[in-house]
Specification:
There is one protein chain. It is built from 8 helices and 14 strands. By secondary structure, it is α+β, with helices and mostly antiparallel strands. It is about 25% helix and about 25% strand. The strands form 4 sheets. A 6-stranded mixed beta sheet has the order 4-3-12-11-10-9, sandwiched between helices. A hairpin with a 2-residue loop joins strand 9 and strand 10. The chain has one domain: 4-Layer Sandwich (L-amino peptidase D-ALA esterase/amidase), CATH 3.60.70.
């Protein structure tokens, strides 16, 4: 039975409407795939790979992109070239900290195997640390797993929680993982979508807020235990996609707004945290074999609603990761409990009048 999402519990965050799927795949052409590894022998492993395709033809039809590092204790490959050129020309992946190299190289190998003609490959692979629940030093992620995530990527609903790269991740001392959400906005004379996908693995319990309610201070470790009483080695990766026509500097500005959504949930950018955000736009196409590209871009004043959409989608994506995740026992018999839906609703009702726990519908 599929786990519910935030809105299935009657909790609605933000003011803007979501897309039909409330997922990053509401941006036409975007596909997501996962490869998940859960094993108890010979090593205890809870890990995986998540792949995102901006579009099927990304190898030939590049997308403008930009990034923001809120706190840099993490890794996302390919950023120097993005800073220089502002383009992405390959699918991107997210995995665990010690598997960035093998997954990054797997994207290159995937391109070679599929006879992709590019002068060189500098793909994006990002990470968060799953070593609390998974024997990260087992180096269990393989090229085949990355190939699987890339090959099974699809449009439509996105699996959330303990899947793919998010399998062993923890959020605000509850089980975390992969989450996604989207927002639709009317700006610059058209309707555009901003979608977010997060790999969420950060935060202390007392900082967690849901729609402004201090849930983490109410569901204390005395109610739902947490074994992680020291500062977590924690991080979050946020990928934003939009069909609004943006140039690289505008993508970079959009990526920064993921910080707002993270802060609404309770992220502060701890010293040990790798909070790295990337945004890409599918509206323009830049072909490397064309000498001139015809481009479109929304006006500066039209960016504000897109910023709001990015913040709201990031916030809800993190909360969807929390809601979808399930309690997990892992490495050294450590256990991380899921955020209990019944206790969450009890807290929300205490802070909100009847019928309004979710804000505007």
């Amino acid at each position: 039975m599929a786990r519910p999402r935030l809105r299935d519990l009657g909790i609605v965050t933000g003011q803007l409407p979501p897309g039909p799927l409330n997922a990053i795949t509401d941006v036409e052409g975007v596909k997501v795939g996962h490869s998940t590894l859960i094993s108890d022998s010979p090593r205890v492993v809870r890990t995986g790979v998540t792949a995102i395709w901006p579009r099927d033809t990304i190898w030939q039809d590049w997308c403008f992109t930009g990034f923001h590092s809120f706190n840099g204790n993490g890794e996302m490959t390919g950023l120097p070239w993005i800073a220089e050129q502002g383009l992405i020309g390959a699918p991107l992946c997210i995995t665990n900290t010690l598997s960035v190299g093998v997954v990054r190289d797997a994207i290159c190998a995937y391109a070679v195997e599929n006879k992709i003609e590019q002068p060189f490959h500098l793909p994006v692979t990002a990470e968060t640390w799953d070593g609390w629940l998974s024997d990260v030093e087992s180096l269990s992620v393989t090229q085949a797993m990355a190939f699987d995530a890339l090959a099974n990527a699809k449009s439509g609903p996105v699996a959330e929680g303990c899947v793919g790269g998010g399998t062993g991740m923890i959020t605000h001392e509850f089980k975390g993982g992969i989450g996604t959400a989207s927002r639709a906005v009317d700006t610059a004379g058209s309707r555009y979508t901003v979608g977010a996908l997060v790999q969420s693995n950060y935060g202390r319990r007392h900082l967690l807020r849901v729609n402004g309610v201090p849930v983490g201070r109410e569901i204390t470790t005395e109610i739902v235990p947490s074994e992680r009483l020291v500062e977590p080695k924690s991080s979050i990766i946020v990928i934003l996609a939009t069909d609004a026509p943006l140039i690289p500097i505008q993508c970079q500005r959009l990526a920064r707004r993921a910080t707002t959504g993270l802060a609404w949930v309770g992220g502060i950018g701890a010293n040990s945290s790798g909070d790295i955000f990337l945004a890409f736009s599918t509206a323009n196409t830049v072909r490397p074999d064309h000498k001139v590209s015809e481009l479109r871009a929304v006006g500066p004043d039209e960016m504000t609603l897109l910023f709001e959409a990015a913040a709201e989608a990031t916030e809800e994506a993190i909360l969807n990761a929390l809601i979808a995740a399930e309690t997990m026992v892992g490495f050294k018999d450590r256990i991380v409990y899921a955020l209990p839906h019944d206790k969450l609703l009890e807290v929300m009702r205490r802070y909100r009048p009847p019928g309004t726990i979710g804000g505007p519908q």
